[in-house]
Amino acid sequence: MTFLPSLNSVNPRRAFAGIGVVALLGLGVTACSSDSATGSGGDSGSSGDYSIAFLPKNLGNPYFETSDQAAKKAVEEFGGEFKEVGPSEATADGQVSYINTLTQQGVNAIVLSANDVNALCDALKEAQDADIKVITFDSDVDPSCRDAYVSASSTDLIAQSQVDLVAQQIGEAGEVAILSASANATNQNAWIESMKSYAAQKYPNIQIVDTVYGDDDDQTSFDKTEALLSTHPNLKGIISPTTVGIAAAARYLSTSQYKGNVALTGLGTPNDMRQYVKDGTVTSFALWNPADLGILASYAAKAMIDEDITGEEGDSFAAEGLSSNETDFEVGDDGVITLGKPFVFSADNIDQFDF
Ligand code: RAM
Asked: How far, CA to CA in Å, does 321 sit from each of 69, 75, 295?
């Protein structure tokens, strides 16, 4: 496969410098034995002023298991107390009760990936009133109800990389559908909006004919894939901008008549997708390093608790232990802190990664 022009500048060895080593040293292993990170509230046992709670969209999602496991390590390394809590289903309602409990417990910071842009705001404002720092990571809320947002990459870069991948795989023409996460997910909705305008402008012969929601649930995503293919007999490609969705869609395609005929790309983890790249169901897909996202969010929370940053544009802070070896980060417009660029995985490189 050829790397996308927009991603050509991302040298795999530089983009994930050291990740192979990190994986060998334990990231992949710990990502698989994630009981402590995925339990509903295991404390690290450390003490200090950094009591930091991670609240993913849902528990049992390998993407968040990787980011939160890495966050746990980072928080413990700087002497903090880590906990992870979260709902089993990716809903805003499910997250609100955890935010309320964390506020009552008086943690120093809540780091969350939001299932809705507005529905968590009342609970988060109560947390802020109780002097708790609120950091979003992966998926944002309205900027008025958090202190900063740690984003994987820019919305447009993430969106464009997926559209370019599907365009490459279907000869820049034909019907494409999107299999998303939950209908209110802030991150997916922003990417989808950007995908649609980019596709319309750059690929006039591609039609995005449908968007369906698998709720970041494996079975729902599998069923929605099956339904998409029967509703749209001329479908040429599916973009699934969610690690849960793309893995379920690949599983469906891999044993169906559509394998090799309908392209599938989007955002996936190498460990989930490896078998489908090897069996020819999937050519290439994108993501960033979820472990790095967790580490960066931990250091942003620490800097916020230390009052080194407030979320103002231009604030800067240091992070340690990223696979990119980057240490210096700056808060951008609207309190957004950006990790880097998305990276494309294919048969050529997938075996270098273990997460
Ligand atoms: C899923 C979640 C997460 C998203 C990744 C790509 O794990 O929806 O929010 O960032 O996919």
From this structure: 13, 11, 7
The pLDDT assigned to 187 comes to 98
Residue nearest to atom 3 of ligand 1 (CA): 242
Residues with Cβ within 6 A of ligand 1?
57, 61, 63, 113, 138-139, 181, 185, 187, 216, 242-244, 267
- Quick one: which atom of ligand 1 is closest to the CA of 64? 7
Atom of ligand 1 nearest to the CA of 241: 6
Per-residue confidence (pLDDT) for residue 11, from 0 to 100: 35
- Residue with CA nearest ligand 1 atom 4: 242
On whether the CB atoms of residues 344 and 285 are closer than 8 A, the answer is: yes
Domain with 55, as residue range(s), is 12-153+289-340
Pairing of strands 328-330, 316-318: antiparallel
Index of the ligand 1 atom closest to the CA of residue 57: 9
**Which pLDDT value is given to residue 48?**
53
Mutual angle of helices 62-77 and 290-305, in 10-degree steps: 40
pLDDT averaged per 10 residues in sequence order, the chain, 355 residues: 29 35 30 33 51 98 98 98 98 98 98 98 98 98 98 98 98 98 98 98 98 98 98 98 98 97 98 98 98 98 97 98 96 98 98 97
Same domain, 275 and 174: yes
Tokens for 48?
């200090």
Same domain, 200 and 131: no
Residue 302 and residue 97: Cα distance in Å, rounded?
A: 24
Output the residue whose Cα is nearest ligand 1's atom 5: 242
**What dihedral do alpha carbons 72, 292, 263, 199 form, nearest 10°?**
120
Residues 29 and 143 in one domain: yes
Residue 337 alpha carbon to ligand 1 centre in Å: 17
